[in-house]
Every structure is written in C-alpha cells, then in structure tokens.
Amino acid sequence: MIPLRSDPPPPTADAVVIGGGVNGLSTAYELARRGLRRVVVIEQGYLGSGSTGRCGGGIRQQWTTEANVRMAQESVEIYEELSAELGYQTFFRQGGYLMISENEADRPAMQKAVELQNRCGAPSHFLEPRDCLEIVPQLDITRVRAASFCPKDGTAYPFAVVWGYARAAQRRGVDIRIHTRVTGIRAEGGRIREVVTERGSIATPVIVLAAGPWTKSLAAMVGVQLPNWQERHEIMVSEGIKPCLNPMVISITNGIYFSQSMRGELVGGIGDPDEPHWTDPRDFDTRCQLRFAVRFARALTAIFPPARPLRLMRQWAGMYDMTPDHRPILGGVPDLQGYHHICGFSGHGFMLAPIAARRMAKLITTGQPDDIIDSLRLSRFAEGGIETDHFVVG
Amino acid sequence: MTNPHECMLCRCEDVTLAEFRAAFKEGFTEFESLKRYTGVGTGFCQGKGCLAEAAVELARLRGVAPAEVSLTNIRPPAATLTFSELAALPLTPLIGDSRPDAGDKPAGKEAR
C-alpha cells in the first residue's frame, strides 16, 4: 500500500467518495476501473475504522427478498475471485451458513426463502433439525425446529478486504486521504459542486456518500433526507481453539451468530432489541457492555455446548445503518445531479459491498439504469409498498 | 543488537520485530492499523505483554517520542472469563438505560 496521507486534498477531482470502509473503497476502485481518472476517497479515521472494521465478516445469500438474494449471490461470485483480482489475500472461506430457528412457525417462511434463493441461483437447502448435526455435530438441537444451509456462504477478513481494495484503487490512481473530516458539501443549480474538508475543499461534479452510519448527516448537508437510523451492535472473539466449526451458525430466533476464524477464535455477536435508535452522530456510543457478554454467553452455551469452558477474550461494538425495510439505499436523487449514496445496509454492508459498488460505478459512469439499484432507490419509502427482508438478524 | 527476525515482539501471535517494521514500511503507520495487520496485541494476553514494546518501536519508526504514539483501544474484559461463567452472571441494563426493570441489577462500571 502507498502510505496513506492526511495532508490537504487535491483542489479538483472527477469524483469524491466519502467513507474509507468497504463500500467507499470498493466504489472508488470500481470507478477507477471504469476509467475515472481522478477519484478521491475521504475517510475521517483510519481505513475500516467505522462499521466495516467492527463487523463479523459474514457473507451469506440466505435472504427473503429478491434484491438481497441476487446482490448477495453476485457478491459471492466477486468474493470467490477477489483475492486474485485485487492481488491481496482476503481470507475468504466458504464454510457455509447454517440458519436455525426455534419456532415451528418459521418453517414455511424458511422453505419459501430457500425456494426464492434457489430460483436466484443460490444453492441453499432446507434442513430438518437432526440434519444440522451433519454440518455441526456439536450443536444442541433440542430447541431447533427448522434450519437451512447454503454451502457457498462464507466469511472473509474485513480489514484485508479493505486493504486489498485500497491498494488496488491506489494502483489505479485513486487518492486516499485518512484522518480528514468532511465539514460541508456544496450544491448549486441542482448540481454537486464541492466537498469541503477540514484540510481544504475539492471541486467535484460527483460525490458518493458511503459513510455507513454517518451517511445520513452527510446527505442532510445537501438537503437529502434519509430515513435511516443507527444502532449499536456488539461482537466478541474467544480464545483460539483447533478448527472444529466449519460454517457460520446464525439463529433467526434470538439473533446469535458465530463462526470460527482461521486463527481458531470463535467470532460472534447477538442483537439486542432494547438498543436505542440513534439519528445524530453525536449520540453514537460504541462502548462495550457486560450485558452483551452475558446475553451472548447464555445463547452460545445453549446452542453450542463445547464453548462452555472457552474464554471470551475481547469484545467491541459498532454501528448498523438501518432502514425501514432493512434493505440498502442505493443510487441518487432526481433533482441533484452528481449526488449518490450507498448506505442503509442494515448490518450487511460488508457482504453486499462488492456488487453494490460495481453496479453503482456502472450507473455513475454510464448513466445506464440498473434494475437492482432502481428497486433500492430512496423514493421507495415515499411511494409505499416496501418489502422488508425478514432475515436481518445479529 | 538482537536480530529483528528472531526478536519476538508479540509472543502470543508470533510477530517479530522485523515483521512489525515491514508492516510500517508497507504503509501501516498507526497503531490501530498495525495491530490489525500484524496481529500484535490481539492474542491471549491482549497486549499486556507487548503493547508498550510495540509503542516504543512505533515511536522510533516515526521519529517521535513514545508519549506521542496513540495506543490501540483497550477493550474488555480486563481478565478473561469462560462463557459458562459469563452466562451465570445477572443481566445488566443497557448503558444509559435507567428504567428500574432494565436488567437484573443496577449497571456496573461502564467499560470503553
């Protein structure tokens, strides 16, 4: 990697991407790959210091809405080749995702979801509880009522993906500035004109807001109102043990998910329905809580008994950028030329970034309509009839 | 002087001094990124045996005083507990949640 700079950014650019996480860096890389010459990325901290670097690294195709399944499936195809494409080891590994439910009532929904996934080309299948033991023999299936498994789902190391995209973007001329905060965005005559940072301004006709939980406040700078809210989610790693768990296990009942990293650690989290909804970055609070450790430990020891004597080694928190239908918001807005956002992934930005970025870069550089981006446009919320994805857990 | 290829900076994660220096040269010039790239401080001792040494080395590489190097966030738990032990603890309320029924008992000292 070319050493990253924090000195004043260039005065002009063809496009400015705000956010140095997986979505911003992959978008910058894809824009440069499509021939945009002067792309600048502005990151307020270090690369991956926002939501990307806090995430669990899971990549799954098991969703209940077509846009999410198709995007995830295309993302997996990119992830399968990404280490080679970027010339960087991303530690992508397809151990599969085992989704379980403790509710009998979820069986038809899971079967229907599998049908949708298969129709879109994802090789998932429905499982009876006892079949889970063939995939994770140590699982306590006493309370499991339904399950599904997709062997092509997997995990990657979020920081490696970030660094790989950053290096590949740099090789194509992308200028990355870290520890640089955006203080304003100027639009005039219905067009984006300038991004103002604490270290200087950049005149640009194109901006891409890819700042995860900070996107809402950036969009507000040019009068775009996003319906997003932000939530704290916590995660932990255990001490490392010998490889014993191949897939990611995830429960749609209590929201626990856990996998084993290549270093042998269990990595996992659990959602907390009592967490407040935030909309102002000044309220963001990523302190860790004992409450999380206790809730996670209770759920983990119940479903995966071999974890009982293991030690929790480290825990941390990050932010989900949520939307009312738990699906991302992509594209631009009709009356502001040059404005784009790629946000609202509701906890799943890492797995969907490669394809979201590829499709966004195509839209930005060619103007050709994109059916998935169109289905994830901001105006869907005002138009009504939104379709929520029910498999947003963790 | 010790051969940097044989000098273990982080014993838990097998990071040598030479590897730490190579990572700096590759562009990982701040502690938060060095930690995630090399693994330094992320092993069983969680940095208790290596963070100070690594900070001194980073200061040397950057040509500044050790006090000017920001360290990585120190995260809970201070001492490790097993999942069985954790599962048996009472549930505390969320940070900032003062409702009387928010947990099994009042919140403990908040950790960053």
Question: Overview of this structure, please?
Answer:
The complex is a heterodimer of chains A (394) and B (112). Chain A has 394 residues and is α/β, with parallel strands linked by helices. Chain A folds into two domains: 1-93 and 153-228 and 323-394, FAD/NAD(P)-binding domain; 94-152 and 229-322, 2-Layer Sandwich (D-Amino Acid Oxidase, Chain A, domain 2), CATH 3.30.9. Chain A is 27% helix and 24% strand. Chain A has helices spanning 22-33, 66-86, 107-119, 158-171, 215-220, 290-303, 349-366, 371-375, 380-383; strands at residues 15-18, 39-42, 58-59, 97-101, 125-127, 146-150, 154-155, 175-177, 182-188, 191-197, 200-203, 207-209, 229-240, 248-251, 256-260, 265-270, 311-322, 329-331, 339-343. Chain A is globular. In chain A, 56% of the residues are buried. The model of chain B is unreliable at 105-112 (pLDDT under 50). Chain B folds into two domains: 8-68, BFD-like [2Fe-2S]-binding domain (Arc Repressor Mutant, subunit A, Orthogonal Bundle); 76-112, no CATH class. In chain B, strands 1-2 form a two-stranded antiparallel ribbon. Chain B has helices at residues 17-25, 31-38, 51-62, 83-87, and strands at 8-10, 15-16, 81-82. By secondary structure, chain B is mainly α. Chain B is built from four helices and three strands. The chains are: A alpha/beta (394), B mainly alpha (112). Chains A and B meet through β13, α6 and β17 of A and α2, β3 and α4 of B. β17 (311-322) of chain A pairs antiparallel with β3 of chain B, so a sheet runs across the interface.
Gist of the model:
The complex is a heterodimer of chains A (394) and B (112). Chain A is of the alpha/beta class and 394 residues long.
The quaternary state of the protein chains shown equals heterodimer
- Tally of structural domains of chain A: 2
CATH superfamily of the largest domain in chain A: FAD/NAD(P)-binding domain
Question: What order do the helices and strands of chain A follow?
Answer: EHEEHEHEEEHEEEEEHEEEEHEEEHHH
**Major sheet of chain B:** 2 strands, antiparallel
Which residues of chain B form runs of ≥5 with pLDDT under 50? 105-112
Radius of gyration of chain B: 19 Å
User: Please, what is the average pLDDT of chain A?
Assistant: 96
Biggest sheet of chain A: strands, sense, closure? 8 strands, mixed
Alpha plus pi helix count of chain B: 4
Q: How many alpha or pi helices of chain A?
A: 9
Largest interface: A-B, 43 and 40 residues
CATH topology of the largest domain in chain A: FAD/NAD(P)-binding domain
Distance between the termini of chain B: 39 Å
